[in-house]
Amino acid sequence: MYGCRSNTGQLPIKCSVSCDDGWFHIIDVLSALIVDYYPDAIAILIKEKYGTLRFHLANYPKEDYLLGLINMVDSLSEITCEKCGNKGSIYYDNWVRVRCRKHKELHEHKKEVINMNLLPFDPNTIGGMWSEMIALLLREIKMHEEHNEMPLVNFTKFEAIAGKLSIEYTGGNRITKGMIDLLIKYANTVDPKTGEITVIDI
Q1: Any idea where the domains of the chain sit in the sequence?
Q2: DSSP assignments along the chain, one per residue
Q3: What digits encode the pLDDT tens for the residues 16-30?
């Protein structure tokens, strides 16, 4: 997926993508970061599984920064409509899917996955989509601290400055950096309230 262009200028196809269009922007943002750090990486599997986006790579160094990137992509897909890319929620009946209000089916039930009480700021100052993204980040950081020996992370600032999300923190490790880099890069391409894509060129 990220290999060299052929003589015809086409990128070689390394894997199929098995998800709806709404997650393509998340994949684009992740891909831009992967290419920056691991230009020889090859995407071997990109698909929806149990309602969220799964992303598998080959030909890359097994290092923690990449784990952080992929971890955050999985989390962001929990609140991104797989159909359109706008702010969504996990819904379920016989299947689990992430949908916005427009694309959910009438018989589906919403599953609450985000604890907004963890936020150390007023969500009204940041926007609904960005606030949910940060709540997911805090959930993942706490899980890694408790179960994967991540050094403690101290967040000192979550702020919107001139329409851009800024996060300041100390501590953590390369997983932490990967998660935060992905979140900030993605957040700064979508509307802070609705999640609608505002910047296409990554």
Answers
A1: 17-187
A2: --S---TTSPPPP---EES-GGGHHHHHHHHHHHHHH-TT-EEEEEEEETTEEEEEEESS---HHHHHHHHHHHHHHTTB-TTT-SB-EEEESSSEEEE-TTTS-TT-EEE----GGG-SS-GGGT-HHHHHHHHHHHHHHHHHHHHS-PPPEEEEEEEEETTEEEEEEEE--HHHHHHHHHHHHHHTTB-TTT--B-----
A3: 788 999 999 999 999
